[in-house]
């Protein structure tokens, strides 16, 4: 493995020509110039099978590493060499920061969606309770009307005890209606205890 100083600016002409035992070369992002033929005939950099370059019955595994957006990456592309793109610490930090920002944004999106869903459920519950309250108020009002009508009917029956004539007719009509009212009151048994 060949390790360069991180401050290296130039790799001289023919620096690694005919190197047969090199497995990995990492070109620093600081490099601004690579001399002619610097890597000529380094196994793995050229040939029909650039990653596994076969020579004399042997197979040489070679890794040529370059930093993303660096001069060396452009150089490797121009030469058509197999290469692995790696990242500088600054680039790694930038990507990590972007990933973290995306993660936070996703968490915020999920939290916002959850908040909206909770708010929707809360509003639905409030609407359900409002409708129930309105329905109960209507039932209570009708129940009290029936109770009041029952009292009036009982009074009418009591006041009209005649067997014949108008009183008999009123008494009969009041009894019929009283029966209907009491049947309706049976539907309000759930209110009887709460309102007494």
Concise structural overview:
The chain has 196 residues and is of the alpha/beta class. It is built from four helices and eight strands.
What does this structure look like?
The chain contains 4 helices and 8 strands, in the order βββββββαβααα. It is α/β, with parallel strands linked by helices and 196 residues long. The strands form 3 sheets. The protein has a 4-stranded parallel beta sheet with strand order 1-3-7-8, covered by helices on one side. α1 links the parallel β7 and β8. The longest helix has 71 residues.
Q: Could you outline the blueprint of secondary structure elements for this entry?
A:
Layout: E1 2-3, E2 10-11, E3 24-27, E4 33-34, E5 52-55, E6 58-61, E7 63-67, H1 71-79, E8 84-86, H2 89-159, H3 165-185, H4 189-195
Parallel strand pairs: 1-3, 2-4, 3-7, 7-8
Antiparallel strand pairs: 5-6
Low-confidence stretches are: 44-60
Percentage beta strand: 5-15%
Provide mean pLDDT, rounded: 80
What structural class do the secondary elements suggest? alpha/beta
| N-to-C CA distance | 94 Å
* Largest pleated sheet: 4 strands, parallel
Number of contiguous helices: 4
Helix content: 55-70%
């Amino acid at each position: 493995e060949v390790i360069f100083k991180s401050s290296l600016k130039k790799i001289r002409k023919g620096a690694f020509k005919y190197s047969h035992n090199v497995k990995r070369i990492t070109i620093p992002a600081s490099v601004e110039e690579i001399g002619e033929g610097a890597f000529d005939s380094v196994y793995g950099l050229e040939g029909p099978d650039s990653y596994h370059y076969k020579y004399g019955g042997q197979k040489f595994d070679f890794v040529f590493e370059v930093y993303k957006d660096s001069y060396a990456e452009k150089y490797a592309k121009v030469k058509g060499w197999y290469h692995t793109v790696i990242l500088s610490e600054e680039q790694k930090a930038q990507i990590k920061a972007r990933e973290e920002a995306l993660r936070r944004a996703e968490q915020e999106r999920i939290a916002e969606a959850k908040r909206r869903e909770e708010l929707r459920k809360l509003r639905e519950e409030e609407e359900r309770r409002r409708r129930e309250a309105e329905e109960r108020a209507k039932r209570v009002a009708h129940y009290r009307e029936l109770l009041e009508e029952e009292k009036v009917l009982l009074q009418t029956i009591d006041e009209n005890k005649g067997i014949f004539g108008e009183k008999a007719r009123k008494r009969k009509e009041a009894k019929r209606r009283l029966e209907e009212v009491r049947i309706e009151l049976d539907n309000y048994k759930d209110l009887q205890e709460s309102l007494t």
